[in-house]
Amino acid sequence: MTRRTARGMRRAAGLALAGALILGALILGALILGAANPALALLPPKYYQQARRQAPNVVVIAVASVTEPQAGYGACAVAGLVRKVERGTLYKPGAALTIAVPCRKPGVQPPLGGTIYADPAALRAAPYGRAYLDAKGALMLSQYEALAAAP
């Protein structure tokens, strides 16, 4: 083996090792950022604000119960009576309503995306909630606000 061939082999091995280290660091960094800060994957705030502005139905409910999903994350069923209709004609005060609010149990990491997951304990602790609903009564872009007091 000549000196030139040996030097070339060492250089190739060094480049392969450096490439593997860089790739490993990138993968590790992506995992850390994804686990430590899921907000990085959320939509820009303007889309959530737009959903609130454009929701055809906005109601405040007096929360009677909150049922958690069996899995670590999913939809909490927030049930209660409509206390106030702030916008829309789909609901009347006093109507029974159950809203599917995205929620996750503490320590559970749901998939990254535009969904905002509420803490089931916080939903349960709030006696009232404001829901921004579409024309069919479904929550728009996870826009549910737990309220400590009636507005």
Relevant terms:
151 residues; five-stranded antiparallel beta sheet
Largest sheet entry: 5 strands, antiparallel
Approximate strand percentage: 25-35%
Gross morphology is: elongated
| Fraction of residues in H or I helices | 25-40%
Low-confidence stretches: 17-41
Distance between the termini: 84 Å
Kindly report the spatial arrangement of strands forming the biggest sheet.
3-2-1-4-5
Radius of gyration: 24 Å
Figure out the total of helices.
3
Number of DSSP E strands: 5
Q: State the secondary-structure class.
A: alpha+beta
Rounded mean pLDDT is 83
Order of helices and strands: HHEEEHEE
Characterize the structure shown.
The chain has 151 residues and is an alpha+beta fold. The protein contains three helices and five strands. A five-stranded antiparallel β-sheet has the order 3-2-1-4-5. β4 and β5 (139-147) form a beta hairpin. The protein starts with a helix and ends with a strand.
What's the layout of helices and strands?
Elements: H1 3-36, H2 45-54, E1 57-67, E2 73-87, E3 96-104, H3 120-125, E4 128-133, E5 139-147
Antiparallel strand pairs: 1-2, 1-4, 2-3, 4-5
